[in-house]
Design brief:
Chain A is of the alpha/beta class. Chain A is 41% helix and 26% strand. Chain A is globular and about 60 Å long. In chain B, α2 crosses α3 and α5 packs antiparallel against α6. The chains are: A alpha/beta, B mainly alpha.
Chain lengths: 257, 263
């Protein structure tokens, strides 16, 4: 299978099922009981045959209602989950941000945490050394970096974690609902950084409920509904379709009552 | 591939560094505890087994002999206990980032390995004070430690993957460790047992490792698998290690794809 040069991420006929045992086999006794009683495992289809391509330079949005499979899709692309069936091909270096500040340790200094987090995300210490000053400057935390993280306020911690994410220099960046932290001033700074990435032609994948952000940045949007691809294409059409689905769901909810 | 390599090394290095920095946070003596703990355990056992229950009679350099046994056993306990819970303990990481799962298990036993290194320095110094003649055979401790590390690693892979599914594992393993302590000649000497049974003791790789380490470091009178078994079965302890490591590695590899959803 040859990936065309301009494709950054290619998802083909992706399926993901989770097994939900009625009684989770967490002890031997439970396992034996489940085998004896022949308790069948229940599987839940979360993604059901999804295919799409994300091109290089795309600012790609993934939207959908709660439980539509967005986060699962992102975790599959990030390589955290293994697909039940189907394929994901990634062309380039990808840094996923499913949560900010993974591995942050309150007993370490701010500086150590930046390196730790960066290394866990796939950078080397050397690469982090190059990015370090910019990250700290962006977070506006220069005077505090030799303090232990536990002495940071929660706002400062989030700002630091977010700055690592947004200053991570890689070809493909992926964010799961991690925007909108900090005060208005900081948020605006983040949005400006996104503008910059867009201008530079970086590939960004964004999972979000914030339609304003989608409208402002995304050139292509995938809309998921019940684990299937409902719509893919232009952002304003996608948002319109998303609102329709929400409206229908709301009406159904009302009629059921 | 080369990128992957340097990346994995960076992750391993960073995790070990964090473990070490955090481990003795807020304790005044810090790293010194890595040395003090085995020394105190040793002191207690030495008093008990020299003056109260004299098991050490007739063993050359019994204090060093005992200390070395304790140090090796401590490494085994520490690395397998921490190793077995390592995957679940780092569950947040596994669910959120893509790092090779095996690095988590290896990093958890690295700090135990560093402790072992520090403790062995104490053993060396102690040996010199006790009148053990230094010799080139001391260097043979390196392959023995390597063997011990591989064994502990193999077990950690097996136990940590099992622990994701069955949380009973740690309790079961604690019992094994208790039994293992007495099945391994740490406080007593194999000489004190009827000689027709000694060969069966070497089915336990820990017995072979402890006795070999004593042979190269402390006294040539240490009964080893080499001096006991004179057939092809001399490889039995190594076969046990190989079997456990291959099984553990295979099972871990198969299960590791699903750690993120199973934890």
């Amino acid at each position: 299978m040859v990936i065309k040069k301009e494709v950054a991420i290619s998802v083909q006929n992706l399926h993901k099922e989770f097994t939900l045992p009625q009684h989770k086999n967490t002890t031997f006794k439970q396992t034996v009981v489940n085998i004896v009683k022949n308790n069948k495992k229940v599987t839940q289809k979360v993604l059901d045959g999804i295919s799409f391509d994300i091109n290089k330079g795309d600012f790609f949005g993934i939207i959908g209602r709660n439980g539509s499979g967005k986060s699962t899709l992102l975790k599959l692309i990030a390589g955290v989950y293994t697909p039940t069936a189907g394929q994901i091909m990634i062309n380039g270096q990808l840094t996923p941000f499913i949560e900010l500040g993974v591995g942050f340790n309150p007993e370490l200094t701010g500086r150590d945490n930046v390196y730790l987090n960066g290394v866990l995300l796939g950078f080397t210490r050397k690469q982090m050394g190059v990015m370090y000053d910019e990250i700290v400057a962006f977070a506006e935390l220069e005077p505090f970096m030799d303090q232990k993280l536990k002495n940071f306020s929660s706002g400062m911690q989030v700002r630091l974690a977010f700055s690592i994410a947004i200053k991570a220099e890689n070809e493909i960046l992926m964010f799961d609902e991690v925007l909108a932290v900090g005060d208005a001033n900081f948020q605006e700074k983040c949005l400006q950084q996104f503008e910059k990435y867009k201008a530079e032609g970086k590939t960004i994948v964004l999972v979000t409920h914030a339609m304003g952000t989608v409208e402002r940045f995304c050139n292509r949007v995938a809309l998921l509904e019940y684990g299937k691809l409902d719509f893919i294409g232009d952002s304003s059409k996608a948002i319109r379709r998303y609102n329709e689905i929400n409206q229908v769901a709301e009406n159904n909810g009302l009629t059921k009552k | 591939m080369k990128y992957l390599h340097s990346r994995n090394r960076a992750i391993l290095g960073e995790m070990v560094r964090t473990d070490f920095k955090v481990r003795y946070q807020n304790s005044m003596l810090g790293y010194v505890w890595s040395l003090l703990k085995p020394l105190f355990i040793f002191a207690i056992m030495y008093i008990v087994f020299t003056y109260i229950i004299p098991l050490g009679k007739g063993i050359d350099h019994y204090p060093v002999y005992l200390l070395l046994g304790i140090v090796i056993w401590n490494f085994f306990v520490e690395s397998t206990m921490i190793g077995s819970t390592s995957i679940v303990a780092r569950g947040d990481m596994i669910r959120k980032i893509r790092i090779p799962r095996y690095l988590i298990v290896i990093s958890s036993s690295m700090s135990a390995l560093i402790n072992l290194g520090l403790s062995l320095i104490v053993v060396f110094i102690f040996a010199l004070f006790n009148g053990v003649m230094p010799s080139f055979s001391w260097f043979l401790i390196i392959p023995i430690i390597a063997e011990l590390f591989v064994f502990a690693q193999g077990l950690s892979f097996l136990l940590s993957a099992l622990y994701v599914k069955f949380r009973d594992i740690t309790y079961i393993w604690e019992i094994f460790i208790q039994a293992g302590f007495y099945a391994t000649p740490i406080i007593y000497s194999l000489k004190s047992l009827p000689s027709q049974y000694t060969k069966f003791f070497f089915l336990n790789p820990m017995a072979q490792i402890v006795q070999d380490a004593r042979y190269v470091l402390v006294t040539k009178t240490s009964i080893t698998v080499w001096s006991t078994v004179h057939s092809i079965w001399v490889i039995a302890p190594f076969l046990v290690i190989l079997a456990i490591t291959v099984t553990g590695g295979y099972y871990f590899k198969r299960r590791s794809k699903y750690f993120a959803e199973d934890i």
